[in-house]
Write a structure and sequence with these properties.
Length: 264
Amino acid sequence: MTDVDPCAELARWLRGARNVVVLTGAGMSAESGIPTFREAHAGLWSRFDPQELASPAAWRRDKALVWGWYAWRMAKVRGAQPHAGHRALAGLGHARSGLTLVTQNVDDLHERAGSEDAVHLHGSLFASRCFACARPAGNVALPPDAADSPSLRLEPPACTHCGGSIRPGVVWFGEALPQDAWERASQAARECEVLIAVGTSGVVQPAASLPASAKARGAKVAEINPVATDVSNVMDLVWRAPAGEALPLLVAALGKPEVSTQPC
């Protein structure tokens, strides 16, 4: 769209929508200081080989290397804080029914900002489980130096049920998405009138298919991202701004000024 105020237009869409999906990606968390995976030179996979750190084969080959790297990531997330965009989404979710928050992120920043029932397509760093029996282990204790180095070698905890090794609760390369999460996300995309993609690269499937799926069923689709992505050409509206700037303005435009200092 050209010559349209994206904040005002998106607010207009939301006022007329009963069901809304917000899909967030790594760019959302990057504003809180959490490294993305695919950003050139700065992304995690530009510095680390995913096959050595994020696959079942890597785990079987060297659990201490993999668990140490994920302990570093968990420590980094625990030291990060939700930003204004996270808080704005939480406020929007509390203010209206019919909003489904779907995230590709494995951190807990949405929850710490106050969002409830976020759909985690790629699992959660803090939902550890046993590699052998799949029993949940919950949050695990980290050593005080976990945030110091991504190369820390650390033996994973043992499962209290079967004695197997506790693994991160994330979706690794070669693994399927959690079925219930994907079913909820895909159904919400089919039924929504508006879908907003925030900070996602549009590269990772099947999550990247959600905007096109929503649009094919008549929904308006919008992107909030400071850079062009692989799904930009699908969008009815593009707002070139970071989430921490755009989302508070959007919520303020909808009449919730407590999460922002200036309306659009």
